[in-house]
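To close the section, here is one more complete example, presented without commentary so you can practise reading it yourself. The ligand is zinc ion.
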Amino acid sequence: MVIKFQKNEEWFTFYDSKGTLIERKTEVRFDPLTGETSRIVFDSGAAIVPPDYTEAAKQTIGVKCPFCPENLLHMTPVFPKEVAKDGRIFQGKAVVFPNLFPYSKHNGVVIFSDQHYIKLEQFTTELIMDAFLAAQTYIQNVKGTDPKAKYASINWNYLPYSGGSVLHPHIQAIVSESPTNYQTRSSNKLLEYSQDNDGIDFHYSLYHTEKNLGERWIGECGQVAWMHAFAPKSHNDFIAVFLQSHSIYDISEQDWADFARGLQAIFATLTEQGFASFNLALNVALDQEARQLVYAHLIPRITIGKLNTSDINVFQALQNEPLSFKTPEVVAAIARNNFQKL
Ligand SMILES: [Zn+2]
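Output:
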């Protein structure tokens, strides 16, 4: 059960116009699973202003929104009967229907509720739990009808900074015959790790190691544990590990409720830093014999400074090198504090 946390510090030295020495550190960190690097770079302290979509919500609510109650049942499409007996899947206030513009062979859109704009602090345990339960039902139904469907994920783009094109909160449940690049790379590395470590899953080792070290440990609700990534994919990178779930069939309603509670502490941590938007990806096996734990990553999406500069530049887009202005251990401490308030 070995997890290696390796990093390399690079120092850039130069002088200001008066001749005073300036030293700037870039910390290159290696992902303990994949070996891929991330850079913790100097934080210029540029202002992060959280977007407020209250006005935009007034312009896009109701008749103008396909997901609002006025339109939902006649504007959104329906699934074949084998996938959803009544054409759509309902779970509490959540509803699942087909994505008109699919990313994959199977792509359900889950809306959380009839509420058009929900601020981070307004997401309740019940809203989040029902949306993920609905996504789970959809994925299980798809698997029951399509033996070629192999790769599943639940994805959340929250607000436009993250790529979300509709304000009305929704998540995407995706099942494909082909893995994404990320799914290929991570599943190969997870398999390699368990083969080298007597069948122990990487995320199981990570959970014990991080909980023991404490530096990046955040907390746990029921069977769902949270920690911060050592080599983050963005300015924050929160990891949730489902400690008892290996496939979509293992996740209970209680697990989703526990996941939702933890997520509320993560949302408070985003808010505390001036972040409002995020991407979340939860990859889940469809094979009941799967041995690897279900896990998710959440990163914030921001714009920088007065020009609303994108948080993705050539480094992330073409050099494939994630950058972070924030130090993982500092962010984890903020999140840990919010977890204690749950
Ligand atoms: Zn709406």
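Once you have examined the tokens, check your reading against these statements. The pocket of zinc ion is lined by residues 61, 65, 67-68, 116, 168 (CB under 6 Å). The domain at 1-342 is CATH 3.30.428.10 (HIT family, subunit A).
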